[in-house]
Amino acid sequence: MAPRWAPPAGLVLLMLLLTPATVRGDKPLRGGPSGAGAELEASSAVFPLYGDVYPHGLYYVAMNIGNPPRPYFLDVDTGSDLTWLQCDAPCISCNKVPHPLYRPTKSKLVPCVDQLCASLHGGLTGRHKCDSPHQQCDYEIRYADQGSSIGVLVNDSFAVRLANTSVVHPSLAFGCGYDQHVGSSSDVAPTDGVLGLGSGSISLLSQLSQHGITKNVVGHCLSLRGGGFLFFGDDLVPYSRATWTPMARSAFRNYYSPGSASLYFGGRSLGVRSMEVVFDSGSSFTYFAAQPYQTLVTAVNFKTFFTCNTT
């Protein structure tokens, strides 16, 4: 679910079988704000994935947020950085969601001068200005499907069970969305918000890496029958007995890309090469930029015309 302001890539592709996206962090490991203050050894976290390509058109995870922890369903989106929940702040425009709306407290607000706020605004608009050091960090994000969320950045505890069986409770920044336009407001939304897994510093994956809890590596295995698994960290890569496709940083903002691609139709090259493939788990569609799209349409029309006139 790429943000609307993103430049069009050659191809946005939802891969169905096994497509881990990989970005590695170089930060030293250190104790996170989970209470103990002790040194942490980076581990991995595995989350069951729910949903499918059809008929639901999305994959989501359950995450426990707050104190005490409460479950929320988050739409997994590698095409954006910001994680956000629909919340009662109070709510101006919210969908019906599976769980009670998240309710923030004033102490959870992230100030405008916080580095994460600067990173968030740098990624969304390229501009960041604070009128006061006590000003809250507001955000507005719009997506390519015309959906949007307006809210404020907050910090709260996430309960994360690691592969080494320990449970950590880091305080992570995410969006408290009080004005949403996502689908029909009369329908119950399948999720409570979005899990942004882009490679920007505001993404939960980057924040977990900064805390030394997991390495800055994300992967997922999507089943053709629906469901699957989401991986944070790389501990399980050598032991999963699966073939992993590494991802590189994309030239288009903070997206993931398995590299360049060539366009074929009917087993023949269409002469379109070096298209950068961008992986976006928040979309169930494949998109082409104008030039490769027109080349493909021309090939399809020619094939149809030739077939109709020879039968």
Automatic annotation (TrEMBL):
Q: Name one GO molecular function term.
A: aspartic-type endopeptidase activity
Q: Which InterPro entries match?
A: Aspartic_peptidase_A1, Aspartic_peptidase_AS, PEPTIDASE_A1, Peptidase_aspartic_dom_sf, TAXi_N
Which SUPFAM superfamilies has this protein been placed in? Acid proteases (SSF50630)
Q: Does Nuclease show up as a keyword for this record?
A: no
- Domain Peptidase A1: residue ranges: 59-311
One GO BP on record is: proteolysis
What keywords sit in the KW lines?
Aspartyl protease, Hydrolase, Protease, Signal
Signal peptide residue numbers: 1-25
Which residues are the active-site ones? 77, 280
Report the superkingdom from the record: Eukaryota
| Family affiliation | Belongs to the peptidase A1 family.
Read off the PANTHER family from this record: ASPARTYL PROTEASES, EUKARYOTIC ASPARTYL PROTEASE FAMILY PROTEIN
Q: What is this protein called?
A: Peptidase A1 domain-containing protein
Name its species.
Answer: Panicum virgatum (Blackwell switchgrass)
* Species lineage: Eukaryota, Viridiplantae, Streptophyta, Embryophyta, Tracheophyta
